[in-house]
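Newbie here. two chains, one complex. Structure please?
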Amino acid sequence: MQPQELVIISGKGGTGKTSIAAAFADYFPNKVLADGDVDAADLFLVLQVTETQIAEFQSGHIAEIDPDKCRQCGKCAALCRFDAIVTSESGYQVDARACEGCKVCVNACPHHAIEWKEAFCGLWKESRTAQGTLFHASLYPGAENSGKLVSFLRDKARKKAMDEGIPLILVDGPPGIGCPVIASITGAARILVVTEPTPSGYHDLERVLALAKHFQIPTHILINKADLETSYLKKMEDCAAKSGATVIGQIPYSPLFSEAQQKGQSILKAFPTSPEAETLRTIATILKQKMDESEAEGQK
Amino acid sequence: MQIAIASGKGGTGKTSLAVSLFLANRDRSRLLDCDVEEPNCHLFLATRFVSRTSVEKRIPLLNPDLCKHCGKCVEACQFNALAEAGKAGILVFEELCHSCGGCTFVCPTGALHETPLKMGAITRALVAGKAELITGALAIGHTETPSLIRAVKKTRPDPEVAFTLIDAPPGTACAFAAAVEHTDFVLLVAEETPFGLHDLKLAIKALQKMEIPFAVVLNRMRPGFSSVLEFCKEKNYPLWLQIPESRAIAETYARGGTLLDAMPELEESLRLLLDQCAEAILCNPRN
């Protein structure tokens, strides 16, 4: 049986993705977890994790000029589209941060003076938590290729789920609509967009729904802090309908999320009897039903 | 002087601060919205549209008559954007293409040439008469966030405008780096939560590696919680402005208002904040 993958994204940052992911981690009984927000990975802060594996992630390659072989012809600098070949007193050098890893300079150098070195963009980790196995990472500051690292974590989570017959993979995604978000959602069974009723929440929701539609992934919307401005509900429902998504629930603006975070727990664990926790359990149940239905549909 | 407003964690109030800092200093600054995946500054400003230009990337286009199926282009591409496809020659996956020019460079028969593809747009607008807002917006499905950010930053300022303010994207990856690189100073907006503290530490590490000076603005201060405050004190990091957690601010924001609408008394502090940045830049021994 193929595991189903639910990815939580938001467009705008800070709408409550990780808090919702943590709550679902406590709600769903049997799942593998992955934190796809690799450059601001916070899910582990609200799960008690024990790292069982940790390794460097090779993201690609980077060019390095051997000053002994370089004849200062400048061909590499002329061809580089990323302004990554810089000149200094000691001659041509590669600006490691600007290097895109395209290998054009390596192939073009007439003196074979440019080496092609492995590049590492961060650490990936497998951890044991009370809620299941978590695959997460810490990207090196300012590093490239976070998308590749996200894809790698999802592959690991999928393999784990397949090997152990676990039916669900829960992915806490990154903000935005770019490379790491695309890496988080391609091929996923379902997306949950956590949004908020603000001009930026709405604007970013429109863009993230367009992205979900582009990849043809069934999508639901959860409006967090819903009572801040109720006029957005109708607009968000209309916007959802246009791209074939649905608003699946609303949660009020609540200090309990920060307080749960402060305790290092999800809101379901920290405040199990609160109305917020009750609402989240209801939303999770509906999501589960929707996912089961589409799986039954797929097996027909 | 270029000053970026950044944060590790999303939703800490970057845009809110950037817009309010811009409004309070509109006589001497312009604002670049470099959160190109989700640009939001314009939503909180009364703008007059001036112009829009497309930003393109170059992708390879195959002339199948000239292709000898040697496979050199596929081998040269480091991004899996090219695949051999039998009689059709090669397939180009344009979303994966990084526009490095490597495939056209290695093609021995001249079967590949480059053609432009729109990946985003840059919009210029004016606020309150003459203050300038430049917005970069990435096209849906594209991944060239850092390139577009660099294109926004290349727009030329009016020489009489002293400050260029940059609203950066969240995170600490390459998009963040593209927004803060070559700036003179960064204001890091943090929030008083465990996630906020954790991501602030990541952002500081990134800035230290890039050797860019910074100060912290602390948002969502809650009575009884002071982890970010204590962290800054312990490390001796400058903490220049504190904004309380308040439902009233959140409601004002939800209605499209700025921090200045919610707390008009901040105007003077926001002018001083920019003066403080300028002073720090002028005192920086690197300059």
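Moderator note: The two ends of chain A are 14 Å apart (CA to CA). The CA atoms of residues 30 and 72 of chain A lie 60 Å apart. Thread marked as resolved.
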